[in-house]
Amino acid sequence: MLTREFSATTNHRIGKGLLWLAACLALLAMWRWVVEARFLEAAYLSYGEVVSVNSKQDDAKVVFHDAAGHPRTASPWVKSSSRKYRVGERIAVLVNPSDPTTAKFNEPMQIWANTHLCLYLSGIAGVIGLLVIKKVLVIGPLRQKSFRIGM
Predict the structure, then answer these.
(1) 68, 102 in Cβ contact below 8 A?
(2) Cβ atoms within 10 Å, residue 91
(3) Is residue 72 within 8 Å of 65, Cβ to Cβ?
(4) Can you count the helices (H) and strands (E) in the chain?
(5) What pLDDT shows up at residue 104?
(6) Strand locations in 27-88, DSSP E?
(7) Closest CA to 81 of 101, 99, 55
(8) 54-67 per-position pLDDT tens digit
(9) Any bridge partners for residue 47, and if so which?
(10) Which residue has the higher pLDDT, 71 or 57?
């Protein structure tokens, strides 16, 4: 619950700050899009086998072979409760020939998660910023209960 609202100038500055944050996150999303697109252009497809999983089965260690035939290990960059791994399961892995340590599972969530996160946060910050600037949303300090910290 608000005790009082900030001044119109402060609200306007907060709204502009949120719009700047939205713009920066949108630029970051575009940069991540380019990075991931370049990765996909350079990567080749390899197949590996799940050798271990955690108790929730949302994290796995996959052993695959790079172009030189050397065994490598990959883990998912993003853990999702909707994806369950099983030991012995065959997983498609995208491998960058110049740096096999950056291999990713060939799943949309593993490839595009960072890009989409930045894009969604940009949209949220932009909408809130516009609502504050248009005075539809009011920003102010929250009511605080007094409390003491000490010995």
Answers:
(1) no
(2) 19
(3) yes
(4) 2, 5
(5) 92
(6) 44-53, 60-65, 71-74
(7) 55
(8) 877 777 889 999 88
(9) 92
(10) 71
Q: Please name which of 15, 5, 21, 18 lies closest in space to residue 139, comparing C-alpha atoms.
A: 5
Looking at the predicted structure, is the pLDDT value of residue 110 above 60?
A: yes
| Residue 48 bridge partners (DSSP) | 91
> pLDDT tens digit string along 81-92?
677 888 999 999
Comparing CA positions, the residue from 125, 127, 128, 151 lying closest to residue 21 is: 125
Query: Does residue 121 contact residue 23 with C-beta atoms inside 8 Å?
Result: no
Cβ–Cβ < 8 Å for 100, 72? yes
Q: How far apart are CA 1 and CA 141, in angstroms?
A: 8
Asked if 128 contacts 4 with a C-beta cutoff of 8 angstroms, the reply is: no
Predicted pLDDT of residue 146: 62
Answer for the pair 82, 110: CB distance below 8 angstroms, yes or no: no
Q: Are 43 and 96 in contact, with CB atoms under 8 Å apart?
A: yes
Please state whether 72 falls in left (phi above 0), alpha (psi between -120 and 50) or beta.
Answer: beta
- Mean pLDDT, the chain, rounded, equals 88
Q: What's the full length of the chain, in residues? A: 151
